[in-house]
Design goal:
374 residues, alpha/beta, 2 domains, seven-stranded mixed beta sheet, four-stranded antiparallel beta sheet, 12 helices, 13 strands, 41% helix, globular, transaminase activity, transferase
Length: 374
């Protein structure tokens, strides 16, 4: 499969050309309001002195890095602010391949295509670990695949595309597997604010020089356009400390730095947003999950029970998750989802739907009517 050519844009473009109204369930762009404090932070920044409009530190505003470090229980020297979680994952994978002993990246099948595309771009060998029937990850399966050739094991919890979360036992065993094989566990936790199961465990709960945690504020604050993410590397003064040094250089040579006004606004929002903001968004998504899974039940679909994030992956009887069928769903039902084949050859029978639209209820009705008429 060619992961270096993501299929998201192809689906979006087809939906835009459709001659009917289409509900977008492709993109992961939150449709709710960002924190009010974020808007306040932008207004305050706009009135700043000229010096505040110049380059920040390459690794990020010190105050933001301090805030992240305090919240995550790490030293500030471990934190680098990146252009979204995408760059954070790129740095983590690139430095793992550069400095660890292996040249292979271990990914979970089905995979968020950008992980695989990035691994291909970095000329890594790719090996897949299959998700369980319920969408989880069994550490025993990882142990079967990991070897001395493995430089990085990349996980995402809560997960895109399956919507599952990995519990404490799983995460601890994955870190242990990485330690045993001189590899890095790269844990992308961008959906950590969207855990409905109470099972989510950050890899930061394990004190280890063999784990890198990546995250961003794109989803939790509904600001995908701001591109403020971060990576937490092993301490530069400890084992595997060279990864942080390498990441700093790679980040600086590629970007120089990241957007200062976006960082300043995020910092203000972190300091001034009540936890109720995040809980309200979780409640909203729980309602959407209920509405959409009810429609899936009515259509006789099989689906992975969403435990986190805001995606549902489903399989419909006699209707495979190919690009052709995605286009048919757009043309005949007015719903745009992602083909399962974009995430895995083994998921060709499935489709993935993003629940970040206020029209989830309408989409559910359209879906039920489409399959009822077949």
């Amino acid at each position: 499969m060619d992961y270096e050519t993501p299929q998201f844009f192809r689906v979006m473009q087809y939906a835009q050309r459709a001659d009917r109204d289409v509900v977008d369930m492709v993109s992961g762009n939150p449709d709710w309001e960002p924190p009010q404090a974020l808007r306040e932070g932008l207004r305050t920044y706009a009135d700043g002195e000229p010096a505040e409009f110049q380059y920040p530190d390459s690794v990020g505003l010190r105050e933001l890095r301090e805030e992240i470090a305090t919240r995550r229980g790490v030293d500030i020297e471990q934190v680098i602010v990146t252009n979204g979680a995408g760059e954070a994952n790129h740095l983590a994978m690139a430095e793992s391949l550069e400095q660890m002993s292996g040249d292979e990246v271990l990914l979970v099948d089905p995979v968020y295509p950008y992980y695989a595309g990035r691994a291909e771009m970095l000329h890594a060998d790719i090996r897949f670990v299959p998700a369980t029937d319920r969408g989880g990850l069994d550490p025993a399966d990882v142990y079967e695949q990991i070897s001395e050739d493995t430089a990085a094991v990349v996980i995402n919890s809560p997960n895109n595309p399956l919507g599952v979360t990995y519990d404490a036992e799983t995460v601890h065993e994955l870190v242990a597997a990485a330690e045993e094989h001189d590899a890095m566990l790269v844990s992308d936790e961008v959906y950590d604010h969207f855990d409905y199961s109470g099972r989510f465990e950050s890899a930061l709960s394990v004190d280890s020089p063999n784990r890198i945690v990546t995250n961003s504020f794109s989803k939790s604050m509904a600001i995908t356009g701001f591109r403020v993410g971060y990576a937490i590397f092993p301490h530069p003064d400890g084992p595997n400390g060279g990864l942080m040094d390498g990441a700093r250089s790679r980040h600086m040579l590629t970007n120089v730095t990241s957007s200062r006004p976006a960082q300043a606004a995020v910092l203000h929002a972190l300091r001034n947003t009540d936890p109720s903001y995040y809980e309200a968004n979780r409640d909203l998504l729980r309602e959407r999950i209920d509405a959409f899974t009810d429609a899936l039940d009515a259509a006789g679909a099989e689906y992975t029970e969403p435990e986190g994030a805001f995606y549902v992956m489903a399989r419909f009887p006699g209707f495979e998750g190919t690009m052709d069928n995605v286009e048919r769903l757009i043309d005949e039902a007015g719903i745009a989802g992602m083909p399962g084949e974009a995430f895995s050859d083994t998921r060709r029978e499935w489709m993935r739907f993003a629940l970040v639209t206020p029209r989830v209820g309408e989409a559910a009705d359209r879906l039920a009517a489409f399959f009822d008429a077949r």
